[in-house]
């Protein structure tokens, strides 16, 4: 999985971080690395803890919550 988060307000406005990793939804809790990108997050790193809250296989919908920890 690859996902970028762009901050559009506040002290991190214009900064970006990227989440990269294997998001196996069948695993209840999983960790994925955060890769630094731009702005205040340049040369930083961290991780995301993802947890599946609900899965609807009939429609292919899955609700996943993420807690993101980034050091800078």
Automatic annotation (TrEMBL):
The subcellular location is: Secreted, Extracellular space, Apoplast
Q: Which domain of life is it from?
A: Eukaryota
- Annotated GO CC locations: apoplast
What keywords sit in the KW lines?
Answer: Apoplast, Secreted
Coarse class of the primary localization is secreted
Pfam families in UniProt? Dirigent (PF03018)
What does this gene product do?
Answer: Dirigent proteins impart stereoselectivity on the phenoxy radical-coupling reaction, yielding optically active lignans from two molecules of coniferyl alcohol in the biosynthesis of lignans, flavonolignans, and alkaloids and thus plays a central role in plant secondary metabolism.
The family annotation for this protein states: Belongs to the plant dirigent protein family.
Q: How does it assemble?
A: Homodimer.
PANTHER family associated with the record? NUCLEOPORIN-RELATED
Write down what this protein is called.
Dirigent protein
The organism named in the record is Citrus x changshan-huyou
Q: What is the lineage of its organism?
A: Eukaryota, Viridiplantae, Streptophyta, Embryophyta, Tracheophyta
């Amino acid at each position: 999985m690859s996902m970028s988060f762009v901050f559009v307000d506040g002290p991190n406005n214009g900064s970006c971080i990227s989440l990269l990793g294997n998001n196996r939804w069948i695993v209840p809790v999983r960790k994925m690395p955060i890769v630094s990108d731009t702005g205040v997050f340049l040369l930083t790193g961290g991780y995301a803890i993802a947890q599946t809250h609900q899965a609807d296989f009939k429609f292919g919908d899955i609700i996943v919550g993420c807690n993101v920890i980034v050091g800078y």
